[in-house]
Amino acid sequence: MTEKREKTYTFAWEGKDKNGRSAKGEIPSASIALAKAELRKQGINPSKVRKKAASFGTKKKIKPMDIAIFTRQLATMTKAGVPMIQAFDITAEGMDNATMKDLITNIKSDVAGGTSFAQSLHKHPKYFDDLYCNLVNSGEQSGALESLLDRIATYKEKTEALKAKIKKAMNYPIAVTAVAVIVTGILLVKVVPQFEEVFAGFGAELPAFTQIVINLSEAVQKWWLIIVVGIGIGLWSLKRILARSQKARNSFERLQLKIPIIGAILDKSAIARFARTLSTTFAAGVPLVDALDSVAGATGNVVYREAVEQVKEDISSGQQLQFAMRTTGIFPSMAIQMVAIGEESGALDEMLDKVATLYEEEVDNMVDGLTALMEPMIMVVLGTLVGGLIVAMYLPIFQLGSVV
């Protein structure tokens, strides 16, 4: 039987701290009495505690980049010797996102109450995954939280930058398709019917190409609502299937790697994520076999996830990482050679970091190349569509002389 959680509210408070100075802030709690008790535990003598009014506006979502910014700011302040609790206050104050501010306040309250930083993060799995929490825990246990936070911040920033590039690469084909569909729809619904009225008085059979376009125009005018709803339902169904079925997701991810240009970008980004995650966890002192658990989920593709799981099994049986990677048959020779150098020199984390940087730069260059390629491609696609429809409409006019 699951334990029922108490509803938490946000309370604004004013009072005096341990040194007798005036202070104010916010604290999450189930009631005013519990809020006052929590404040006293933190050495604050509250004079006013009031429940904040509920906001009926749409709450701004916390994005992964918000977590990256929070981590970087926290890493910078703790390295500068700022106490953790004070660092939370400063970081929260600088956040524009009210939801993110509330999250930091909740974490601060837990830490101030005696909970470890890692345990307080575990309470928010939506924003802090196991990798993040485990690295923070390693930092707390080893007494090197400042350097670990710096590594986590770098990892999050690089990962989010890579995700942004992949998103940019995926958006261009979608944009080309969307623009092509919209332009074609407008021409079929608004332009072609005008020509159809003119052709009605010709008294001659229309060319096959023109007749096909007219039939298509009539179908779109008659069934446009069903077509739009059908496309909407189809996209929604696909999204639901991918969200619910692991098998469908795996098939989709395998298919993505086979798409020209896009597949190569996704391939290199998976290698970059593999190297970046493994470098971060290994440098934090996490055993290689345990680190590979986090790496498998971070690659972002089922092909590499299965390959990493195979690598983990091989390493558990005594193989070196370089040989285990080679056995999978999907890692490039460059990455394997650099890992081999890292293993032999005892600087595996540094070499993995270089592998990650190398492939991140390749992804960056490929996305820039795709951007440059897509601009003329859009012109070609639209030119072909518009030109084809114009030719179809003017063919009967070219043949008008034979009718007269």
From TrEMBL:
<feature type="transmembrane region" description="Helical">
    <location>
        <begin position="223"/>
        <end position="242"/>
    </location>
</feature>
<feature type="transmembrane region" description="Helical">
    <location>
        <begin position="376"/>
        <end position="397"/>
    </location>
</feature>
<dbReference type="InterPro" id="IPR018076">
    <property type="entry name" value="T2SS_GspF_dom"/>
</dbReference>
<keyword id="KW-0812">Transmembrane</keyword>
<protein>
    <submittedName>
        <fullName>Type II secretion system F family protein</fullName>
    </submittedName>
</protein>
<comment type="similarity">
    <text>Belongs to the GSP F family.</text>
</comment>
<dbReference type="InterPro" id="IPR003004">
    <property type="entry name" value="GspF/PilC"/>
</dbReference>
<feature type="domain" description="Type II secretion system protein GspF">
    <location>
        <begin position="274"/>
        <end position="396"/>
    </location>
</feature>
<keyword id="KW-0472">Membrane</keyword>
<dbReference type="InterPro" id="IPR042094">
    <property type="entry name" value="T2SS_GspF_sf"/>
</dbReference>
<keyword id="KW-1133">Transmembrane helix</keyword>
<keyword id="KW-1003">Cell membrane</keyword>
<dbReference type="Pfam" id="PF00482">
    <property type="entry name" value="T2SSF"/>
</dbReference>
<feature type="transmembrane region" description="Helical">
    <location>
        <begin position="172"/>
        <end position="192"/>
    </location>
</feature>
<keyword id="KW-0813">Transport</keyword>
<feature type="domain" description="Type II secretion system protein GspF">
    <location>
        <begin position="70"/>
        <end position="193"/>
    </location>
</feature>
<keyword id="KW-0997">Cell inner membrane</keyword>
<dbReference type="InterPro" id="IPR001992">
    <property type="entry name" value="T2SS_GspF/T4SS_PilC_CS"/>
</dbReference>
